[in-house]
Fold each of these.
Amino acid sequence: MDNELENDPSSESFPTCPNCGMPVVDVTITGPTTQYARPCGCLVHLSELE
Ligand SMILES: [Zn+2]
């Protein structure tokens, strides 16, 4: 959204999961510091999704 420096064709417009490297197409937020990346399901922080 605000990071257009990353133009990796394999990730389209989605950030990649810092844990497993899969494209994160959605994030489920369950708390102020608890976000689960989808579809991989890893626990991530939104600040790490770049
Ligand atoms: Zn993951």
Note: The chain has no helices and three strands.
Amino acid sequence: MGILSGLEPAKVFHYFEAICGIPHGSYHTKQISDYCVRFAQEHGLHYIQDEANNVILFHPGTTGYEQSAPVILQGHLDMVCEKEPGCPMDFGKDGLHLRLEDGYVSADGTTLGGDDGIAVACALAILDSDDIPHPPLEVILTTDEEVGMLGAAALDCSPLQSRIMLNLDSEDEGILLVSCAGGLQADCHIPVTRENADGLSVTVTLSGLTGGHSGVEIHKGRANANQLLGRFLNELGEAVRFRLCSVEGGLKDNAIPRKAAAALVIPPDEQAALTDAVSHWQAVFAGEYGVTDPALALTAEIGQAATVSALDERSQRNVIAALVNVPAGVQRMSPDIPGLVQTSLNPGILTTSEAEVTLVFSVRSSVRSEKEALYNRLENLFTLLGGSVTRHGDYPAWEYRRDSRLRELMVQVFEQQYGHRPEVQAVHAGLECGLFAGKLPGLDCISFGPDMDDIHTTKERLNVGSVRRTWNYLLEVLKQLK
Ligand SMILES: [Zn+2]
């Protein structure tokens, strides 16, 4: 007897417990993938397993649904592996120790992988039943979602007939996700030439900013250290004849930078002017960002007189022009979904080498053409400054569909079952749905799922009642997709 036997829906929890007994952390998905293949063989289902360990399982429509348009059920096989200090569990070979408490399932000392094991369990439970009416099904179980959606990116979608997809990788019952952002990383280079300069060495540091995730928190109006440092340098030129040696700031393209610094030399007799400028702009920035970045600090550390390798005048002008003029933050809010950031960018990493200054951006938009427009704008600016821009890590958006038969149906079924409307939402970050929307033109897709708390942490727990309601909802949607 399993810990979860006795819970309803029985088959869903049966398969969930089975999955939890098989190690399936990201990059270690062969075993769970083979388990799904054995399931297909035992049930006489047509299946595809690829080199990335993705599995697609096919099931014909049930009686009366043979001619219905096929439907994709989708989730990911891999889980995030976190454990509490001292927990002896080995994610490479041990199963999870499940716990059932107060109507929640969790795992002793580790993540549970309800994200996204519950999707796999629901899909297998449907495929295993003979009393659930449904259209022809294409069940896509991907790998390594949690480490960059690698499985979905590698998947060959040409065997798929369906253009209707139910993604079961959301963790808020009552929310239907209908769109996500696409993105890319833009590396913007400005070549610099150097010459020796004499003066007092100074390091100006802007620190203590709040920062945050460039997808989730870009709309909060927080200061961007790289951009604000550029503004300060531009203003400083009015007061002090400084020479710029380097600028550095931020750690990740998708994190709003919390700290940036510039190395300069100044004429020895302009030390007081520098100190005055720093305290003046510290006060100005504190006024502008007191609410969003209360710990913001602009400081200058004055060192020895020295001869240093500084940017020549033209290079310095170009670098400061770039930092002052780059767009940053929210560029457009969605006209379709209130409160959703549609297009944004974040100059996340600023570095200086001997021969160039580089600014790395995370560009996001749920509208492909707006992402491209923003990239082209960066290219235009940096080309004008004698530099260049390269792109990588491009992933497609899942664009909002103004006409969606699936959304209408799912809203309607939700209202029938719950007695109120679901929330229709979108996220300003990447989801697997975006990759599928890119590969399956015309895809009509919704992402939803049962309530889970604290996913990706050892406190992760799955709400049993919510699983039951979400399951009933899923079955009714399938029934009505005749
Ligand atoms: Zn997930």
Note: The chain has a mean pLDDT of 96.
